[in-house]
Amino acid sequence: MQQDLALLDSLSTGILLLDSNLCVTSLNAAGQAMLETSEARCTGQHASKLVLQPREWLDNLEQALASNSPHASRSMSLVLVSGQEIHVDVIITPISDSPGKTALIVELMAIDRLLKISREESLMHAQETTRAVIRGLAHEIKNPLGGVRGAAQLLARELPDESLAEYTSIIISEADRLRDLVDRLLGPNRQLEFEPINIHEVLEHVQELIAAESGYQVSLDRDYDPSLPALPGDRAQLVQAALNIMRNAVQAAENVADCVITVRTRCQRNFTIGSRRHRLVCHIDILDNGPGVPEDLMHSMFAPMITGRADGTGMGLSIAQSIVSRHGGVLNCDSIPGKTCFSIYLPMESDHADSP
Ligand SMILES: Nc1ncnc2c1ncn2[C@@H]1O[C@H](COP(=O)(O)OP(=O)(O)O)[C@@H](O)[C@H]1O
Ligand SMILES: [Mg+2]
Predict the structure, then answer these.
(1) Is 340 in the pocket of ligand 1 (CB under 6 A)?
(2) Nearest alpha carbon, ligand 1 atom 9
């Protein structure tokens, strides 16, 4: 039995068991994550208390029970108690519980998650390619630049006329400016130093910085999962990543009358990042109620030098993305006007992939 439960908990499909009164008898880990509840909380509850809408949800369960025949619905949008909407394929299978009594097994398969996994994977590949091209280009620029700068310095010493030094100093300072730009493009290149990180301590620190920067004008809301264990990470780099994302949120939302930035943490079980399945993942959402990411930037904003602001550098998200992916994690964004959410997923296991 223990083994059966462990098996069910390792599935990425939600498995809900209902008795003949449509009350919950069991819900596996994936189901708990999807329906945003715990087994302890939902056991004994009627199915209509887990999913508020649509009416079809209950109709299908009642029909499967009455007819004792399976039922499948593709692509249903279920509204949960929290108001959150999930998109799932639902398969209902009646089983004989005790003589004369029918129970139901309900399988829930998150379709948006499946779509997201393949989208994330192609996004991660595209970003790796972009990073590799930029790294190659940056090195090609940096090498001759060193030569140009050195030659200008030599020339400056040999100049017959002092007034010509203005020109060599322009060459030197412009070479320095280019080198800084190239360094920014290359991003943080030191080895990550992993230690056990309390993610809430990191997020609190970032919120203090943001509050000070914004002159204490924005409301910062916390919605933390206090049970989150420590995760292996590089503290300074994670601060940098969260700071870049939160700064963007403030810049986007600060002109909204009741600007609120919400930081939410959750522990996610059985979560796939790229092609790797992780048992436990730390999920951080940074939400703002600003106007949303401009449509034309939605797919390009993680690339370096892409900005929607007149004074932007376009490096914030690219750096955040590269830090998160060096932690073996993934960063993505969902945005509609009034609700923009940047989500960071970080694996909890220590065998991360640090590929600078
Ligand atoms: N929370 C957000 N809401 C709306 N737009 C955003 C948000 N975060 C990022 N963006 C868009 O993505 C662009 C790129 O961000 P970033 O890489 O940090 O560069 P920068 O902030 O220098 O422009 C921003 O200019 C902005 O247009
Ligand atoms: Mg930025």
Answers:
(1) yes
(2) 248
Q: Considering its fold, how many domains does the chain have in total?
A: 3
- Tens digits of residue pLDDT in 150-165: 999 999 999 998 889 9
Ligand 1 atom nearest to 288, measured from its CA: 1
Say if CB 53 and CB 78 are below 8 A apart.
yes
Query: Given the CA of residue 312, which atom of ligand 1 is nearest to it?
Result: 22
CATH number of the domain where residue 60 is located: 3.30.450.20
Q: Which residues contact 268 (CB under 8 A, 6 or more apart)?
A: 33, 280, 281, 282, 283, 345
Q: Are 237 and 292 within one domain?
A: yes
Domain boundary among 163, 186, 209: 186
| pTM higher than the cut 0.85 | no
Cα 80 from Cα 344, distance rounded (Å): 23
Residue 355 lies in a domain: no
Report which ligand 1 atom has the smallest distance to the Cα of 286.
1
Of all ligands present, the nearest one to the C-alpha of 246 is 1
SS3 (DSSP) at 292: coil
Confidence of residue 355 (pLDDT cuts 50, 70, 90): very low
What is the dihedral angle through the alpha carbons of 71, 73, 74, 77, rounded to the nearest 10 degrees? Answer: -150
Give the structural domain span for 141: 115-186
pLDDT tens readout for residues 5-45: 677 887 888 999 999 999 999 999 889 988 988 888 999 99
With a 6 Å cutoff on the Cβ, whether 245 touches ligand 1 is no
State which of 52, 80, 112 marks the end of a domain. Answer: 112
